[in-house]
Amino acid sequence: MEFDVKDPGLAEKGKLRIEWAAQSMPVLRSIHKRFAAEKPLQGTRIAACLHVTTETASLAQTLKAGGAEVRICASNPLSTQDDVAASLVVNDSIPVFAIKGEDKDTYYRHINSALGHSPHITMDDGADLVSTLHSDRRELLQGILGGTEETTTGVIRLRSMADKGVLQYPIIAVNDASTKHLFDNRYGTGQSTVDGIVRATNRLLAGSGFVVSGYGWCGRGVAMRASGMGAKVIITEVDPLRALEAVMDGYQVMPMEQAAVVGDFFCTLTGDIHVIRREHFAVMKDGAIVCNSGHFNVEIDLDALASMAVARREIRDFVEEFKLADGRRVYVLGEGRLINLAAAEGHPSSVMDMSFANQALCTEHMVKHHTTLKKQVYRVPMEIDKNIAKLKLASMNVDIDTLTPEQDAYLHSWEMGT
C-alpha cells in the first residue's frame, strides 16, 4: 500500500485519539453502521483532500465501511495530525499522504498521490484537489462522477469555475448546508480559533482590542468567543449588510486602517487576499499579534511584512517575531495559516459530526444521482440537511414539536386568513 506519513510508529497514539473524538460523533456513527450493512459506495474510488484530523479519520472509516476505496491527502500543510495519519495507514489500511509542516512541493506531490487510483469522487476542502485535476491531471477528468466541497473558500472557487464554464463535473457544496455552516463555521471556528491563539501565545484576551476581519459565519463565531473572554471586539468588513449586522450585534466597526492602530490581536476570516497589508503593519502597536483563520495563508501580506522587518525569529512554537526598523515587533502565528489547526486541534468533534455526516451522505447522493446532474455547484439536498439535524437532536435527547393536521393544512392553504 502506498502512503507517506511522518512516522507509522505514532499509530497507537493516533488510534486512541480517534476513538476519543468518535465518542462525540453519534450522527456519523449511525451512518457508519448503515453504510457497513448496505455498502452504498461499493466499488467507488474517493480522493479526499481534507485536514487530516481525528474527525476526518472517522469520516474515512465510514466511507471505507460503505465499500469505498479511499485515499487522503492534506488540504493545508500545517493541519495534519501525524499520529492520526499513521493510525489510518497502520490500523485502517487507508493510504494517507500528509505530513505536518510539509513544503509546497510535497503538498502538491501528495495531492497527486491521492489522485493515483483514478478516483470517481473528489472530496475537497479549499478546492486544491479540483484545481489540480483541472490543470495538471486532466486525463483523469473523464472518470470523475462528482465531488463535494467542505469550505467557503472552496465553494467560492468552484462557483467561479462553474460560472466560467470550466468545471467538468458536478460538485455538492457541503459548506452551504445549514447543519454545516451554522454550526461548524460559527461554533467550531469560534472555539478552535481562540483555542489556537491562546495555545500559541498564552496571552490574556480580556481587556484587549481584538480585530476580526470578515463577519461571515466564521467571523461571527470568533467575535462571539473573543467577546465572551472579555476582549473589546472590532469588526472590519467590505459588505455593508454584514457590517450593519455587526453594529447591531454590539461590535465596533471600522476600516482596517483605523483598526490597525488600536488592535492587540488581529484575525482574518475573509477568504480574500492581503486583508492586512504593508500600510497596516506600519501603524500597528508594538507587540501586535496577527493570525489567520481563513482557508489559505494569503490573507496576511507576509511578503510585505518580511520586507519591512530588520530581523525575524521564532520566539515560541507557531509564533514568529518580525522586528521593524523603529523597534516595533509584530508577531505572526502559524505562518499565517489556519491557526486553529496549526497551533490547536481544529474544530471539536461534536460539530464536525454534522459536517462529515453531510460529506458521507452527499457522497452517497452523488454516487446514486450523478447521471442527472449538470457540471455545476449544487446545494446539499434539503432532506439530507434536515435528516442530519434530526439525528443530531436525537443524539442529544432533544425532542421537538410536530405539526398537527390542522396546523399543516393551515400552512398549505391560501383560503384561510385572519
Automatic annotation (TrEMBL):
Enzyme Commission identifier(s): 3.13.2.1
Entry's cofactor comment: Binds 1 NAD(+) per subunit.
Catalytic activity: S-adenosyl-L-homocysteine + H2O = L-homocysteine + adenosine
Listed GO CC annotations: cytosol
Coiled coil (UniProt feature): none
Binding site for NAD(+): 151-153, 185, 214-221, 237, 293-295, 340, 347
UniProt-listed GO biological process terms: L-homocysteine biosynthetic process; one-carbon metabolic process; S-adenosylmethionine cycle
PANTHER family, A to Z: ADENOSYLHOMOCYSTEINASE
Family: Belongs to the adenosylhomocysteinase family.
Name used for this protein in its record: Adenosylhomocysteinase
Organism, scientific name: Syntrophobacter fumaroxidans (strain DSM 10017 / MPOB)
Source lineage: Bacteria, Pseudomonadati, Thermodesulfobacteriota, Syntrophobacteria, Syntrophobacterales
